[in-house]
Amino acid sequence: MAADRTTAPIHRPGLAGAIHRGLDSDVFHSFKQSKVTMLAGAVTALYFLAALLAPWIAPHDPYDLANISLMDSFLPPMWMDGGDARFPLGTDDQGRGILSTIIYGARASLLVGFAAVLLAAAIGVTLGLIAGYLGGTVDAVIMRVAEVQLSFPAILIALLIDGVARGVLGGDAEGNLAFAVIIVSIGLSFWVQYARTVRGSCLVEKHKEYVQAARVIGVHPGLIVVRHVLPNVLGPVLVIATISLALAIITEATLSFLGVGVPPTQPSLGTMIRVGNDFLFSGEWWITLFPGAALAVLVLAVNLLGDWLRDALNPKLR
Amino acid sequence: MARPVLQVDNLTVEFPTRRGTLRAVDDISFRIDAGEVLGVVGESGAGKSMTGTAVIGLLEPPGRISGGRVQLEGARIDHLPHDQMRRLRGQRIGMIFQDPLTSLNPLYTIGFHLTETIRTHTDRGEAEARARAIELLTEVGIPAPAQRIDQYPHHFSGGMRQRVVIALALCAEPRLVIADEPTTALDVSIQAQIIQLLKRLCREHGTSVLLITHDMGVIAETADRVAVMYAGRIVEVGPVREVVQNAKHPYTEGLMDAIPKIGGRTEDLAQIRGTMPRLSQIPAGCAFHPRCPRAFDRCRQERPELLDAGASRAACWLHAGEPAGAGTGRGGGERG
Amino acid sequence: MIAFIVRRLLQSIVVMLVVALLAFSMFRYIGDPINQMVGVETSSEERAELRERLGLNDPMLVQFGRFAADAARFDFGVSYQHKKPVSELFADRLPATLELAFLSAVFALACGIPMGVYTALRRDAWLSKVFLTVSLIGISLPTFLIGILLIFVFSVWLGWLPSFGRGETVDLGVWTTGLLTVSGWKAALMPSITLGLFQMTLIMRLVRSEMLEVLRTDYIKFARARGLSDRAVHFGHALKNTLVPVITITGLQLGSIIAFAIITETVFQWPGMGLLFLQAIQNVDIPIMAAYLILIAFFFVLINLIVDLLYYAVDPRLRVDRATSAGH
C-alpha cells in the first residue's frame, strides 16, 4: 500500500494523459477503422459475458449430476428429427446439453487461459527485468534456460510438466488440483517470450540518460526498474499476452483433448471434443463439431485482436 | 536555347494520410541543361529527396505525383507505364543514395552487382560485362579491381562502397544522375574525394547531375546552379555564385549566415529562429513568414511565386515590382 | 570454419547434458524406480538388494554419469508399462513419426514459401487476402480440430481416406515405410496436412513479413533505381535476403513438427513415438518420458546445427576470411 501511495501521484497524470492520448491515438483509430477487429472485439466480449454469467444464462448446469439423465443422451440438435427444445444443440453420451457444456467449457477455457497468461507474464516480466537490469551471470543463466526452453514447443513443455506433476501427485489429479496443474504447466511453458522482450527493452532503457541520472542521485535500482523500465515495456507485453491468450486456450484444449488436461467430470471444450470424437463415425457429429466451432471462433477472435494490437502498436509492420 | 536534359514543370507530390493529404513537394519547376550540375539544398523535410525520387519514378505508395510534368530530353516520363519507366532507370537516369553501407546487397559480390546492371542495360555477355565492370571499378578509383570484384560489400569501406555505387549508377552512361546526399554518411576526409570523383566523371561523360544535399559547402564547390527548397517549394534559384554571395531570399540569407567562415568568429554565426513547419501545419501566405526577420503583411496573406531578383529568381515579396516600403516598416513593428 | 563448428558442437553437447540431467532427475526422483519394477509381495531385503545392484545407492554424480553413458547408447532400461526395453519400443515407432514429420515439412515449405512471397509482392490482390485469411484460420484452429474436421469430411462423409493407422507398410529391415504402398500414401495424406498446416501458416507469415521488411531496404531501392527487372529485384535480391532469417526460424519450426506429432498421432491413431509418449504420460511411465525427452532434444540440436551451417553457407558476412578482410 505504501508503494501505491508513493507511485500513484507520479503515475496518475501519466495515466490520465495516456487515456486521453489513447482516445485520439492511431491505435484507437485503427480499431474503429477495421470492421473485422470490431467484430472480433464484440465476439470476445460476448464470450467473456457468457463465461461470467454462465450459471444464469446456461439452460442447465451440465456438471451437476442431479440435473442430467442418461435418458436424454445422444439427442440431436432441436431442428433435427428427434431433437428436444430443452437442448438446442443436442446432448452428449451422458445426457448433458451441448449448449450448456459449451458455455461452461468456454468459462473454463477463459479461466485457464487468463490464469496461465498472468502466471507466464508475471514470471517472464520479473525474470526479464532481473536479467536485463542485473546482467552478468544471472542474465546469462536466465537467458540460456530461456533459449533451451524456447527451442521446444510449448505444448511439449506443458505435457512434460503435466506428466511430472502426475508423477509427483500420484495418478490422476482431481477437480481443482487438475486445473492448477494445467495452469502451472501452461504458465511455465509460455514465460520465455515475455522475458526476452522485457530484457531487451530493459537493456535499451538501462543506458538512457534518465535511468543513469536516477541511479546517480541514489534511487534504489528496484525502484528505477519498476518506475521507469516497466511502463516502457507494457505495450509489447500486452501484445504478447493477447497472442499467448489464444495459444493458452488452444493448449488447454489440446491437453484436455489428449486426455491429460481437465478431467471428464469437469467442463472443458477440449474434453468434449475428445468424447465426441469417439461418436463421429456413429453419426453423433454435434457432440464434437459444436464445441469445436465454439473453440475455433473464440481463438480466432482473440487472435484477430492480438494481430490488430500488434500492428497498431507497431505501424512499421503494416 | 538547347533542349534541357531534364525539365520539371509544376511538379506536386502528395501523400494521402488519414489526417488529410500532405503536400511534400508543392508546385515546383526547374530545368537542368546538358552537362550541368543543379544543386538542391534545404533542411531535412523540405522536399529535396522527394523531388529526386519523383523524377526517377520511385515514390513509395501512397505517395504519388498529383500534378505537373517531368520531361527527360523533351519526352514526358511522369506517366510512363511501369515497365518503360523501369527500362529508363539506370539506362538514362542514374541514382546514388545517401548511405553506401546499405545501398549494396550484402549477399552478393561487387562483381555480381555490376554485371547484373550492365547486362540489364546492354546486350553484353557475362565475360564482356565482367571486363566492363573491372574497367568501371578502375575508373572510379578502386585499387586492384580484378581482385576486389569478387569480394562482398562488407569487405569495402564506406568511401570505397560509395565509389562502387557511383560506378553502378554510371555503368549505362545515363544522361542524368540524381545524387541524393551522396556524401552525408561518409567521413569528412572522404567527402571531398567522392565529390571530386563525381564531378570529374560527369564532366568526362557529359552527364547532368541533380545534386541533393543540405551541405551548402558541397553545393558551392560542385554545382553550376542551385535551387533552395523550403517546406516543399523552391524559394530561390540562380547561379551558384549569385545565390551564395548575394542571396535574395531571407531564408537563403539565413542559410548562408549559418555557415562558419574561415577567419570569422563563431559568435557571429547567425541562426534562423524556430524550425521548419511540419507538412500538416504550413502557414498561410509565405511558408517562411513566421521565421522571417523581414516579414510584412503581404507575406502573411499571399503566397509569393518565384520573382525575378537580379540574376536569380526568389519567391519573396521583397522582390515584387512595387515593394510596399510602408508595409515593411509596419510589419516590422507588429512583429514585436 | 572449423572453429565455428567445434564451438557449435560444444554448445550442443552442453544442451544435451542439461536435458539429460533433467531426464535423470525425472527418472530418479519421481516415484521410486524400485516400486515400479517389482511386485508388492517383494520383501524389503530383496528391494534393498535390487537397489544396490542397480546402483541406486551410489553417489548422485556416479549415477548420473552411468545414466548419461547409457543414454548415449540409447539404453533407457525397461518401460514400466510395456515391460519391454525402451529402445526396442522406440525403434518400432521412430520410422512412422519421422516419415510423418518429413511429409509435413515438405508440405509446409512447398506451400508456405511461395504463398508468403506472393502475399508480400501482391499485397492488395484478392488471392493474398484469401491466403492471409486462411492463414489466420489455420493458426486459430487447434491441430486436433483440423484433424477431426478432415476425418469428418474425407472419412465419415465422403469415405475417401482412412481415418487411422499407417496403411500397408513395407519392412526394409531396420525401417518400416508406408511410402511404398498406395494405402500408405492415402493414410499419410490427412495426417501430414494436419501436422503441416500450422507450420505452413507460420512460414507463410514469416516469409511475408521478412520480405516486406527487405523490400523497404536501401539496396532494394537502389536495385530498382539501377533499372533491374522486377523479377531480378524480387527473386534475385529480395527473396535471397528474406531467406536468411527464415532459415533459422523454419529450422526450429521443422524441429517442433516432431513434437507436435504427438497430437496428430493421437487424432489419427498413427503408430509413432508421440502416441507412445502420450500413453507414457498418462501412466507415468518415466523411462519412456525420459527417452522421448532426450530423443527430441537430440533432433533439435541436430536441426540447429544444420541450420547454423546453412546460415553460414548463405550469408557471406559470417565467413571471416582473413585474406580479404584486411583490405578496406
Automatic annotation (TrEMBL), chain A:
A Pfam family matched in the record: OppC_N
Topology of this chain in the membrane: Multi-pass membrane protein
Family note: Belongs to the binding-protein-dependent transport system permease family.
Alphabetical UniProt keywords: Cell membrane, Membrane, Transmembrane, Transmembrane helix, Transport
Cytoplasm among keywords: no
Transmembrane regions: 36-58, 110-136, 148-169, 175-192, 237-262, 285-309
PROSITE patterns per record: ABC_TM1 (PS50928)
Gene3D superfamilies: MetI-like (1.10.3720.10)
Domain (ABC transmembrane type-1): residue spans on this chain: 106-306
Protein name: ABC transporter permease
Taxonomic superkingdom: Bacteria
Cited InterPro entries: BP-dependent_transpt_permease, MetI-like, MetI-like_sf, OppC_N
Organism: Rhodovibrio sodomensis
Localization: Cell membrane
Automatic annotation (TrEMBL), chain B:
Database matches in InterPro entries: AAA+_ATPase, ABC_Ni/Peptide_Import, ABC_transporter-like_ATP-bd, ABC_transporter-like_CS, Oligopep_ABC_C, P-loop_NTPase
Keyword check for Transport: yes
Residue span(s) of domain ABC transporter: 6-256
Main location: membrane
A Pfam short name: oligo_HPY
Membrane topology: Peripheral membrane protein
Keyword Manganese among UniProt keywords: no
SUPFAM superfamilies: P-loop containing nucleoside triphosphate hydrolases
UniProt KW keywords: ATP-binding, Cell membrane, Membrane, Nucleotide-binding, Transport
Cellular localisation: Cell inner membrane
GO molecular function annotations of the record: ATP binding
Family: Belongs to the ABC transporter superfamily.
PANTHER family: DIPEPTIDE TRANSPORT ATP-BINDING PROTEIN DPPD (PTHR43297:SF2), OLIGOPEPTIDE TRANSPORT ATP-BINDING PROTEIN APPD (PTHR43297)
Protein name per UniProt: Methionine ABC transporter ATP-binding protein
Source organism (scientific name): Rhodovibrio sodomensis
TrEMBL record, chain C:
Compartment annotation: Cell membrane
Signal sequence region: none
ABC transmembrane type-1 domain residues: 94-311
Superkingdom of origin organism: Bacteria
Principal cellular location given in the protein's record: membrane
Topology of the protein relative to the lipid bilayer: Multi-pass membrane protein
Gene3D superfamilies membership: MetI-like
Transmembrane parts of this sequence: 12-30, 100-118, 130-160, 172-198, 243-268, 288-314
Entries under PROSITE patterns matching the protein: ABC_TM1 (PS50928)
Keyword entries, A-Z: Cell membrane, Membrane, Transmembrane, Transmembrane helix, Transport
Keyword check for Transmembrane: yes
UniProt KW Transmembrane keyword: yes
Family, as annotated: Belongs to the binding-protein-dependent transport system permease family.
Protein name: ABC transporter permease
Organism this protein belongs to: Rhodovibrio sodomensis
